[in-house]
Amino acid sequence: MVADNAISIADAHFSESAWFRAIYVGEDPAGFIMLHNGYDYEDGLECHGVFLWRLMVAGPYQGSGVGRGAIEMIVESLKARGISELYAGCGQGPSSPAPFYEKLGFVPTGVFYGDDDDEIEIVLRW
Ligand SMILES: CC(C)(COP(=O)(O)OP(=O)(O)OC[C@H]1O[C@@H](n2cnc3c(N)ncnc32)[C@H](O)[C@@H]1OP(=O)(O)O)[C@@H](O)C(=O)NCCC(=O)NCCS
Prior knowledge:
The chain has one domain (5-104): Aminopeptidase (3-Layer(aba) Sandwich). The radius of gyration is 14 Å and the shape is globular. The chain is built from three helices and six strands; from the N terminus they run H-E-E-E-H-E-H-E-E. The chain is of the alpha+beta class. The mean pLDDT is 91. Coenzyme A binds at residues 2, 55-57, 62-68, 90, 97, 99-100, 103.
């Protein structure tokens, strides 16, 4: 399940480890991205590295490379900080964004999240 953006922004304000930005296409707001830097375990995230906490591309912009572009920009910025991997969590099932992450090169780590272990941890390394 994908959290509402308002919930994500509220989460971010309660976490010193959150970094979040709007995604724009030209002048138009087209999505939202949020990272967790892995230092604050009170946020309920068990990942030790930089974690893609939320990613949402607005319906009209989906499927046009916006999500890929946002991840590529994040990777460039992490590279500049000497970081060489980005973790994410991904639900499974028919509406899962897993194919998107696979196309970008993310692979499963073997770790599962959630009460029913229904979310898999994935990682992109460079
Ligand atoms: C999942 C999401 C972030 C992908 O962003 P996007 O801008 O639509 O994806 P892109 O256009 O950059 O796609 C990159 C590649 O992944 C593929 N892809 C994207 N979503 C896909 C999906 N659901 N199933 C299969 N392939 C998908 C695209 O076809 C494209 O492939 P190509 O490079 O061969 O052309 C976006 O669709 C979204 O916000 N969905 C709703 C919220 C959500 O699921 N967020 C993720 C929470 S973990």
